[in-house]
Design brief:
Shape: globular
Structural class: alpha/beta
Largest sheet: 9 strands, parallel
CATH topology of the largest domain: TIM Barrel
CATH class of the largest domain: Alpha Beta
Number of helices: 12
Strand content: 5-15%
CATH architecture of the largest domain: Alpha-Beta Barrel
CATH superfamily of the largest domain: Aldolase class I
Radius of gyration: 20 Å
Length: 342
């Protein structure tokens, strides 16, 4: 492993093909959460060098396209958003992935097309033989990446993986070589196996070891980064070119700005006051309702509201009530009465 004890911060910008990611802090694609409203909130705070959509089912995209239906909700906002922006897709058929990748490049002008080889959810793995299931089939991974790279050129293609399917079958080093040999422009590694889901701690030593198995492409580490201090530690201690923040940002979209300041050697901004956090959540709610309407928007916002309250005094009481709202009036009333205050 490279001696990183003397590594100087801030780290240089991350290059994914010709795409400049500065700062090298990426927002993870998270199903059900990282839609256009959430991405806008993160963008307003700043600090993320590359944002990503929710993962898109490539086969579902093709079906909608063939039936002249509206493209997936998960692509809401993509065409108009500031760049750089990544879209993550998943499936196990190289031809389907290539077809969708080309549409994303031609019609949506995305900056990066990312492949999900890390999702551990049973509906994706055991039922669809996709996501982290494909870690047991490196040859199939190679075919998917190779065809997608050819279809998307010159737009870079990246891959996100886990350490392996199970703790006794960790094959991330082998998979990393396959990813690079197939033509991917970067590799993101979540430091758990699919078997772990999100239990235990991410193994950053294992992530760091992968770097020696790559020749030229950057390595991005992911897992348990829930503070600016941990982001700084990741760059100081481990051989990574970038980091990806996931679940910790869902109720704290200002985390990226805090991490970016820390990497620049500046004072880390304090968390917003509870009143400011409440106002941020209400802004988020209005963005969702503007897109999906009051009924669907209110239902979608329940889970976000729980994230904003997480870890605060009275959060459980707030969650109990906000989980039952179905109208905007009910949402505002519950926030007014139960959201934690300063």
């Amino acid at each position: 492993m490279t001696d990183l004890s003397a590594r100087v911060l801030p780290p240089p910008p991350l290059m994914i093909g010709d795409v400049v990611v500065d700062p090298p802090i990426l927002q993870a694609p998270m199903a059900g959460f990282t839609n256009a409203a959430f991405r806008q909130i993160v963008r307003e705070f700043g600090g993320s060098g590359l944002q990503a959509t929710e993962m898109v089912n490539a086969r579902g995209f093709v079906w909608l396209d063939e039936h002249e239906a509206e493209h997936p909700d998960r692509l809401w906002g993509v065409a108009e958003e500031p760049r750089p922006l990544a879209v993550q897709i998943w499936d196990n058929q190289p031809e389907t992935m290539a077809k969708v990748g080309r549409r994303l490049v031609e019609d949506y002008r995305v900056s990066v097309v990312d492949i999900n080889f890390g999702c551990p959810v049973r509906q994706v793995t055991e039922k669809a033989h996709s996501g982290s299931y494909l870690l047991r089939e490196p040859n199939r991974m190679y075919q998917i990446i190779e065809q997608l790279v050819a279809a998307c050129a010159p737009t870079p293609v990246t891959a996100k993986i886990r350490l392996g399917c199970t703790r006794d079958k960790i094959n991330c080093n082998e998979v990393a070589r396959v990813v690079e040999d197939a033509g991917a422009a970067a590799l993101t590694v979540h430091g758990r196996t699919a078997q772990d889901f999100f239990k235990g701690s991410a193994d950053w030593e294992r992530i760091s070891e992968i770097k020696s198995h790559l020749r030229d492409i950057p390595l991005i580490g992911n897992g348990d980064l829930d503070s600016a201090e941990k982001v700084v530690e990741a760059f100081r201690r481990y051989d990574v070119d970038g980091v990806m923040i996931a679940r910790a940002c869902l109720g704290r979209p200002w985390l990226f700005a805090q991490a970016a300041a820390a990497l620049r050697g500046e004072a880390v901004p304090s968390d917003p006051t509870l009143t400011e956090q409440r106002d941020c959540m209400l802004h988020h709610f209005r963005l969702v309702v503007d897109r999906f309407g009051e009924d669907k928007g209110t239902l979608l916002m329940r889970k976000y509201a729980c994230c904003y309250a997480h870890g605060k005094r009275g959060a459980r009481h707030f969650r109990t009530h906000v989980a039952k709202v179905s109208t905007a009036a009910e949402f505002y009333a519950v926030v007014e009465e139960y959201f934690p205050v300063d």
